[in-house]
């Protein structure tokens, strides 16, 4: 059972920010994490601020910048033909999240606000250099995605703040992919997930690994490897070595740390071969 | 300071009929349907979004009603299993479930029908893969899924409803 709680659906951002400043208030979007945690007794909000009535959170644009509002659900991201063209890796990632019914509720912004190290939308947003646009008592601020997620279930959101949207200011062109290791085929959280983008013209290779540290890990130094190593198998080996130096996986219910390391090597190599050849 | 309330008045349309009710904010849509409206066709399996037994259609989209608050459904149009058959007349999909033994204990069936019907409504000729994906959020402990997939395929071939 969900414990008694107050509920408020603001019609304006001002009202929302005001409500979110009260004691123990939580924003409610899709609710697919929050309501589960409430039911399981993990979270005990006193006030749910339902942000689905806020206009500002319904934005969705793909011309030039990509803008995804806080109310945009994952099935929308999968189905939008224009986004599929400009940034297919987002839809690919979204398709691996939960089930069809849950994706009708679950939002991209919620996925990163939940800040699970295994968040499936995060690696793609890291390689795309996304920014999180936050509104609060002090006005609006833009936070790079890798500064937004700060730890296990931790973000840089402050009291009273709400995420309006995620922006990808310069959608990178190149070959992208998202790969996910899970315990069984079907719907499961990631044991390891990886996203990447490669562009031979600009010499950029970006690889991000999820579920193997307290936050997703964007590899540093991949551009140099990409520019200097022409053989794709050798490149895959080197990037995977770099990955193993950069992650710090733990043992948990889904996998041992050792297995995570092994799978990181396998999935990073597979990713590099996919996007670099 | 504004007072925020734990009890709300909501208006919800369920299977075409409008209801005005007062609900506690911690009541789920599933509890609202079953305990307030006594529409007990929709089932509770896990209560945490994993099994799909509680699947209903909200504003044209399937949702797990255990993870929607009744308060969030204010102003929404809901379709449940009770709205599928017209009196004694079953839908083509329901008939097909009977014909192909798509149900055994029946516990998953209301949610399964809602997911499958919603798929056929948005995509009348789904492929096998699309069918599997569409019902992948609906767990069934009895049938092994194959009869369910056949039942949906049969309707897709003949045309919906
Ligand atoms: S009861 Fe809702 S998904 Fe299981
Ligand atoms: S028929 Fe028994 S769970 Fe599906």
Give your account of this protein's structure.
The complex is a heterodimer of chains A (277) and B (161). Chain A has helices at residues 13-20, 34-39, 74-79, 81-86, 88-94, 100-103, 108-114, 122-127, 145-148, 222-228, 232-246, 257-276; strands at residues 6-8, 25-28, 47-50, 60-61, 66-69, 131-136, 139-144, 149-151, 154-155, 162-168, 175-181, 192-199, 204-210, 217-218. Chain A is an alpha+beta fold and 277 residues long. Chain A has three domains: 6-50, Uridine Diphospho-n-acetylenolpyruvylglucosamine Reductase, domain 2; 55-168, Uridine Diphospho-n-acetylenolpyruvylglucosamine Reductase, domain 3; 175-276, Enolase-like, domain 1 (2-Layer Sandwich). In chain A, helix 11 (232-246) packs antiparallel against helix 12 (257-276). The radius of gyration of chain A is 19 Å and the shape is globular. The termini of chain A are far apart. The mean pLDDT of chain A is 93. With 161 residues, chain B is an alpha+beta fold. Chain B starts with 6 loop residues before the first strand and ends with a helix. The chains are: A alpha+beta (277), B alpha+beta (161). Residues 44-47, 49-54, 64, 66 of chain B line the site of one FE2/S2 (inorganic) cluster.
Uncertain runs of chain B: none
Mean pLDDT of chain B: 96
Return the CATH topology of the largest domain in chain A.
Uridine Diphospho-n-acetylenolpyruvylglucosamine Reductase, domain 3
Helix content of chain A: 25-40%
- Measured distance between first and last alpha carbons of chain B: 53 Å
């Amino acid at each position: 059972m969900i414990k008694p709680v107050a509920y408020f659906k603001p019609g304006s951002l001002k009202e929302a920010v005001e409500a979110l400043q009260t004691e123990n208030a939580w924003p409610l979007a899709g609710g697919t994490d929050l309501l589960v945690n409430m039911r399981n007794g993990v979270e005990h909000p006193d006030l749910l601020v339902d942000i689905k009535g806020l206009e500002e959170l319904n934005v969705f644009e793909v011309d030039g910048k990509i803008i995804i509002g806080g109310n945009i659900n994952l099935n929308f991201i999968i189905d939008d033909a224009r986004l599929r063209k400009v940034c297919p890796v987002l839809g690919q990632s979204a398709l691996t999240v939960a089930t069809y019914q849950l994706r009708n509720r679950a939002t991209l912004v919620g996925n990163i606000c939940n800040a699970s190290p295994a968040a499936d939308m995060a690696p793609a947003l890291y390689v795309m250099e996304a920014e999180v646009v936050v509104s609060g008592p002090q006005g609006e601020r833009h936070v790079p995605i890798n500064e937004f997620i700060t730890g296990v279930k931790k973000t840089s959101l402050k009291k009273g703040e709400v995420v309006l949207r995620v922006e990808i200011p310069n959608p990178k062109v190149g070959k992208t992919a998202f790969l996910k290791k899970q315990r069984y085929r079907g719907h499961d959280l990631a044991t390891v997930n990886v996203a990447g983008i490669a562009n031979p013209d600009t010499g950029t290779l970006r690889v991000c690994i999820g579920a193997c540290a307290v936050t997703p890990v964007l590899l540093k130094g991949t551009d140099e490897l990409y520019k200097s190593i022409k053989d794709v198998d050798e490149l895959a080996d080197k990037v995977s070595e770099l990955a193993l130096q950069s992650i710090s996986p733990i043992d948990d219910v889904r996998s041992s740390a050792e297995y995570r390391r092994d799978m990181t090597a396998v999935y990073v190599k597979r990713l590099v071969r996919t996007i670099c050849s | 300071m504004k007072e925020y309330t734990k009890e709300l008045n909501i208006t919800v349309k369920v299977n075409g009929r409008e209801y005005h009710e007062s609900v506690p904010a911690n009541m789920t849509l599933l509890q609202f349907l079953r305990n307030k409206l006594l529409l007990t066709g929709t089932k509770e399996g896990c209560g945490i979004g994993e099994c799909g037994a509680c699947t209903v259609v909200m504003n044209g989209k399937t949702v797990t009603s255990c993870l929607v608050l009744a308060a969030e459904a204010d102003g929404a149009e809901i379709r449940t299993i009770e709205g599928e058959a017209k009196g004694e007349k079953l839908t083509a999909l329901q008939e097909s479930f009977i014909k192909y033994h798509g149900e055994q204990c029946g516990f998953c069936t209301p949610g399964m029908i809602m997911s499958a019907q919603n798929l056929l409504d948005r995509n009348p000729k789904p492929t096998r893969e699309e069918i599997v994906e569409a019902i992948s959020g609906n767990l069934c402990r009895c049938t092994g899924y194959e009869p369910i997939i056949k039942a949906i395929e049969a309707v897709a071939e003949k045309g919906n409803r």
